[in-house]
Each structure stands twice: as structure tokens, then as C-alpha cells.
Write a structure and sequence with these properties.
Helices cover about 45% and strands about 15% of the residues. The chain is of the alpha/beta class.
Length: about 375
Amino acid sequence: MNRLEHLRAKLDKLDSGFSRRVRRDIEGPCSPHVTLDGRAFTAFCSNDYLGLAGAPQLAGALAEGARRWGAGAGASHLVSGHYAVQHALEERLAAFVGRERALVFSSGFMANMGIIPALAGRGDAIFADRLNHASLIDAMLLSRADAHRIPHLDTAALERQLAASTAETKLIVSDSVFSMDGDVAPLRELMVLAERFDTWLLVDDAHGFGVLGPQGRGAAAEAGIDGWRLIQMGTLSKAAGVSGAFVAGDATVIEWLMQKARTYIFTTGSPPALAQALLASIELIEAGDGCRAHLAALIERLTKGLAQKRWKLLPSRTPIQPLVVGGNAAALALGAALMEEGLWVPAIRPPTVPAGSARLRITLSAAHTLADVERLIEAINRLEKTL
């Protein structure tokens, strides 16, 4: 068997295990109401939690930014690819989350892959929740620090491992909102441990920024934590509706990251037009209490309306509402049955989630209507009895 045949065999194995991923092409802007192959669907797939990705205000700001700043950056940020509008965005983000300084990256994955190796290396120790995002896991491995995987949300286990560590530099790493379960990290407890054991605390707020905290300032603001030990990463492609990511913290920390984060130094800067759109997005997030209240109402209706016996809706107060079905084939069958009814909810399977916990990852947006959610509730409750 040659190399190409070997790859084909591995793809066949993905098929036999109901594990091959499939892309779908949306015919229009991001919205809960989309068209696929000429058919209309109500989508519960997107991380566009405030419904901003398709907002005319952001499309207009992006177009204005392209006219003013052009289509591309032309170089890395530290050569000639950093623009005044990007500096303004970093200042706005830092002020919004209440930190001294911020640094914008091209994506959340690149941000995490830059932050962690810049703070920890050989002989250091990283303590990470077992359900952290793949970018945090990969960054931890890249750093070559000693990796300690902590059982999910188990602060007692974290405390024991911190106490046993003799590493000079320690880093606690956690998602704020866990992307496949929708639960929220105990950030206050993590901050107490960071102070007690003299560690950094990196919080990946990808799914909290824009949704949690006063005016959507994020999970750290909701938890009321602060200080130079706290390093916050947030994405700008989910609730913010555009693209990119940022890290915010003490000015000295951010300066160090600008000097040492390889995914910042050695990549072409993001198009400056995106910064123009993101400045408009922060304004909408800050003024978005009505959107967040509507989103909270939709979450409450879904969690109260789904009456499952065979399947399990995981406890979550966030827009991520996972419905655990069990096997891969069963999750795909439920997703396909919903698609037949014009409801698009993705099936999530291992290795993204543990074996035997394949699920539908229902995500809600402020752009959904109550009628959209009622329709989904009725379909899932009925299919659990008949599928």
C-alpha cells in the first residue's frame, strides 16, 4: 500500500466510525436563517452569540475600513504592518475589559499558541483543565513545559498539584466557557490559587467575551477578578462578529508577549479594515444589554422546554447547550432528522468530545426568535420518542 492508498484507507476508517467531518456551503451572510443547496434552514450552529456577524452596521464599517485602509496589511506588525486603526482597537479593547494594555492577533488559535510558549518553557509547569480548547492543549505541548492535566473543574486537584510542584514558573490555564459543554470555569477560585502559589492565570474567554459580565466585558469581569497575574484572551470572531483575537493584561506582560510571541512576530498583520469593523462591534457589544437579555430568555426557554429521557441536556447557563446522545451514529441520525425538518444542529463526535458522548451542540444567538427555539424544542422532544 503506497502513501496515497494509506490515506484513503484512513479516510475509509473515519467513514466506518461515523467520524468524517463534512463542510456545508452557506449561500448568504451569517444568520440563524440560512440557505443550503437552495433549501431554507434555521441554524443552531454558529458562535455568533449577539447576531452581529451579519449586522449591516459592521458590514458598513468593514467597507468603510477597506476604502480607508485598503485590503491588506502588507507586512508583519513589527515591520510595517501595524496601522493607527489597529492601535486604536487595542486601546479600546484594553479599556473595555479594564486592563492596562491589549495586543491583537489574527485568530484565537494563534493567540494561544503565542502566549503560552512565551510565558513557560522547559522546567516550568502548566496546569490545565482537561477540557480546555485544542489551541491551549497544543500550545502547552509546544512550550515543552511540564504539563499537568487537571480533571474538569476540579480545583481541589489543582491545589494539590500546585502544592506539589517545585517549578519556578507556573501557569494555570483554563477556558472561561467550555466550548463543548457550555459550563463556566470557577475563575474566582482559580485566581485565589494563582495568588497563593505565585502563578500566572491565563483565561481563554473566547465564548464569554461579549456575552458574560457587565456590558459583555467577559467572564473575568463577571467573576470580579483582576491583577497583574491575570492574562485574558478573547476572540473577536464569536460574539464580536468579525475576526481575530486579543490578549489583555498588565502592560509589562503585553510588552513581553509582543517581543516573544512567535505567532504575532512572524505573521503578516491582519487587514486593518477589520479593526475598523471591530471598533464598531465593541460599541454594539457595550450597548447590547437588550440583546443579552433576549439571549438569556432564549436559553431559559430551551432548557425548560426540552424534556429528555433518553438524551441528556448538559447544565449550562451559556448559549452553548449540548444535548448528549451517546454514539456517533445516533448523533448523526438525530442531526439528519432535524435537517429534514429544516433545522440545522451539528453533531459533535470524538475526538472533539470523549468517546460515548457524541452530541448535538445547540448554540443560540440573540438573532434567533422565540418561535425558532419553540420549533427546535418541539422537534427534539418528538424525535426522542420516534427516532
